[in-house]
């Protein structure tokens, strides 16, 4: 375990098993239809890669990089990198590492729905319900987590810890300096 981690919440094995479980549910819901996986950079990359390995459905990949203006109540989204794919009439599955306040996912989903996709759904590895500000729910959710600062498996603090093969709680003294 990394020296800055207080506690491991989910091991690599538990994450892989959860990805398999989510993939089965997604495959059942999309039965024979193509899905465009839209990963939100950078955090979703490890989760999206693992989830895709377990999917039997026909999938394509695309990515977005977005950020929100400061202020929890803000609904303003800055798109730093947009998807390349024309999504008109397609099934879009937004892939996110964590659903926290809901602000980013609320805005991304709304934006993609305006592009006339057949469907726009959300899959998240982690769901932190205590942090929710926007009325937002994932269609597919991996793990419910406590209101703690988590890192690993794509989640970072100042671009660090993304490479950890597990999800852990970061020690307070690492982010409250």
Automatic annotation (TrEMBL):
One Pfam family named in its UniProt record: Pribosyltran
Annotated keywords: Cytoplasm, Glycosyltransferase, Magnesium, Metal-binding, Nucleotide-binding, Purine salvage, Transferase
Residues spanning the membrane: none
GO MF assignments: guanine phosphoribosyltransferase activity; hypoxanthine phosphoribosyltransferase activity; magnesium ion binding; nucleotide binding
Domain of life: Bacteria
CDD domains, A to Z: PRTases_typeI (cd06223)
Main location: cytoplasm
Catalytic activity: GMP + diphosphate = guanine + 5-phospho-alpha-D-ribose 1-diphosphate; IMP + diphosphate = hypoxanthine + 5-phospho-alpha-D-ribose 1-diphosphate
Cell compartment(s), UniProt: Cytoplasm
One of the GO biological process terms: IMP salvage
InterPro entries membership: HGPRT (IPR050408), Hxn_phspho_trans (IPR005904), PRTase-like (IPR029057), PRTase_dom (IPR000836)
GO CC annotations, alphabetized: cytosol
Enzyme Commission number(s) from the entry: 2.4.2.8
The protein's annotated pathway: Purine metabolism; IMP biosynthesis via salvage pathway; IMP from hypoxanthine: step 1/1; Purine metabolism; GMP biosynthesis via salvage pathway; GMP from guanine: step 1/1
Domain (Phosphoribosyltransferase) ranges: 9-157
Necessary cofactors: Mg(2+)
Top EC class for this record: transferase
Annotated PANTHER family: HYPOXANTHINE PHOSPHORIBOSYLTRANSFERASE, HYPOXANTHINE-GUANINE PHOSPHORIBOSYLTRANSFERASE
Summary of the function given for this chain in its UniProt record: Purine salvage pathway enzyme that catalyzes the transfer of the ribosyl-5-phosphate group from 5-phospho-alpha-D-ribose 1-diphosphate (PRPP) to the N9 position of the 6-oxopurines hypoxanthine and guanine to form the corresponding ribonucleotides IMP (inosine 5'-monophosphate) and GMP (guanosine 5'-monophosphate), with the release of PPi.
Stated family: Belongs to the purine/pyrimidine phosphoribosyltransferase family.
Name of the protein described by the UniProt record: Hypoxanthine phosphoribosyltransferase
Organism of provenance: Faecalibacillus intestinalis
């Amino acid at each position: 375990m990394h020296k800055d981690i207080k506690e491991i919440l989910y091991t690599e094995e538990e994450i892989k098993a959860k990805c398999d479980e989510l993939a089965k549910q997604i495959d059942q819901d999309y039965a024979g239809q193509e899905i465009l996986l839209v990963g939100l950079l950078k955090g979703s990359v490890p989760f999206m890669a693992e989830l895709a390995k377990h999917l039997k459905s026909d999938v394509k990949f695309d990515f977005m990089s977005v950020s929100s203006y400061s202020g929890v109540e803000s609904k303003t989204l800055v798109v730093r990198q947009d998807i390349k794919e024309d999504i008109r009439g397609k099934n879009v599955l937004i892939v996110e590492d964590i659903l926290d306040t809901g602000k980013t996912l609320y805005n991304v989903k709304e934006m993609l729905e305006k592009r006339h996709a057949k469907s726009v759904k959300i899959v998240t590895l982690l769901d932190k319900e205590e942090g929710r500000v926007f009325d937002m729910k994932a269609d597919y959710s991996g793990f419910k987590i406590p209101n703690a600062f988590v890192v690993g498996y794509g989640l970072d603090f100042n671009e660090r810890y993304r490479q950890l093969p597990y999800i852990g709680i970061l020690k307070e003294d690492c982010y409250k300096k």
